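STRUCTURE REQUEST FORM
Protein name: Putative ring-cleaving dioxygenase mhqO
Source organism: Bacillus smithii 7_3_47FAA
Requested output: structure tokens
Priority: standard
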Amino acid sequence: MGKKTKGIHHITAIVGNPQENVDFYAGVLGLRLVKKTINFDDPGTYHFYFGNEAGKPGTIITFFPWPDGRRGKIGDGQVGVTTYVVPKGAMLFWEQRLEKFHVPFSKQERFGEQYLRLSDPHGLEIELVEREEGDNSQWSFGGVTSDVAIKGFGGAVLFSADPEKTAELLENVLGLEQAGEEGEYIRFRSTSDIGNVVDLKTSSTGRGQVGVGTVHHIAWRTENDEDQLDWKERIEKHGYQVTPVQDRNYFHSIYFREYGKILFEMATDPPGFAIDEEPEKLGENLMLPEWYEPYRSKLEQMLPSIQVRELDKTQK
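Status: completed
Returned output:
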């Protein structure tokens, strides 16, 4: 039997104003800010990680906030829609919460499931779906309690410049199983109970452009460093150019761009987000890798101040 990824590790996107980003994902969606650090490749930019109480793989969305960045265009070669899963029976709560904070949404159906589709303040496309699978988040914040809180990723909708090649990669290289076809979508499933459903759009939406309001890359799970090197060898044997291993402090990463132009990452589950903060303190302080510690004072002066705050109706 071939190798199989468990599913999505994280999704990383580019957004605008950092406080608006925190207000929406923590204040409105009720996710936990589990890590506040910097973009290791662009240290003058924040890197935020939001997820469940511990930042479990499959729950983490990460952001590079570029307040003055050029607006991007969602299209082929990107994750077009990020899907979040909520507990069964929670959808009415989310409809009412989005209305409370004046977030427009629409209702859609795909593969027999009902979705709420919305956009974040910077244009990222998001949807919510109810499923039994996956543990409830134990994080409660700002009126979002564990019984209705976002569990993590339901999955993603991929917009590919070459859907046939992307489908081949998902099934024959990453080990996802094709679960059905409906209209312009092919559905794939991984073995995990979260971050496990990927819908591939087979029609073109036009070429995407990287910038504010677009997903930069999607990362798939690997068990550990040894497993990651096995994945690197496997992917290279299928003709893809894979980067050397990159140390991202909270996981190790390799990257490649698949033939549909989507940037894929393979990220290790360990070591996780508690290596430099106590679990109950996650996200409270600016955390830097040791090679940036000598520049802490300068970086703290450069980066705008942000706070995780509970929102009421008057703040939206």
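Reviewer notes: The first helix runs from residue 18 to 28. The two ends are 51 Å apart (CA to CA).
Form closed.
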